[in-house]
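Budget justification aside, the reviewers requested a transparent look at the raw inputs and outputs of the sequence design task funded under Objective 1. We therefore reproduce one unedited record. The lines immediately below are the structure tokens for a 152-residue chain.
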């Protein structure tokens, strides 16, 4: 089993969350919420308003998200879904646990590592875009995420 930190459209209540719960993709168990120990730029980019975590540690903000325990099948699915290695790269991030769904698996305030889908393959202007500490497709930014099936 692997731990994965999601910060964007795969979080609960976000447009791509159904992919996390589709058992044909593999198994994903919600463990809790966390925030990155280091700051990272979380930006919304492209005409489809996709959230990207730029792999620029020390810049941006501490980013909030969710931790899942996933099986190998789901990890491979997420690699495909996130277009690894061209669009995103799967790296390791250090997290501070905020809320644990099951206390025996995570302890609030503790530090742990998990995989994250961040990117080094971004456009030159992306580091100058506004940064966020918590992504919501329906946020005040007005940049609603476009689902893949709606993209042209």
């Amino acid at each position: 089993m692997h731990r994965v930190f999601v910060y964007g459209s795969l979080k609960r209540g976000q447009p791509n969350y159904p992919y996390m719960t589709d058992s044909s993709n593999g198994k994903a168990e919600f463990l809790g919420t966390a925030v990155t120990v280091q700051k990272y730029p979380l930006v919304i980019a492209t005409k489809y308003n996709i959230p990207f975590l730029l792999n620029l540690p020390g810049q941006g903000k501490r980013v909030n998200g969710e931790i899942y325990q996933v099986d190998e099948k789901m990890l491979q699915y997420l690699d495909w879904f996130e277009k690894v290695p061209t669009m995103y790269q799967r790296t390791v991030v250090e997290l501070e646990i905020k809320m644990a769904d099951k206390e025996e698996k995570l302890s609030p305030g503790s530090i742990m590592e998990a995989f994250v889908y961040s990117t080094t393959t971004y456009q030159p202007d992306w580091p100058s875009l506004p940064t966020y500490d918590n992504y919501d497709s329906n946020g005040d930014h007005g940049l609603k995420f476009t689902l893949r099936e709606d993209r042209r």
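The chain has a mean pLDDT of 92. The longest strand covers residues 28-40. Computational costs for records of this kind are itemized in the attached budget.
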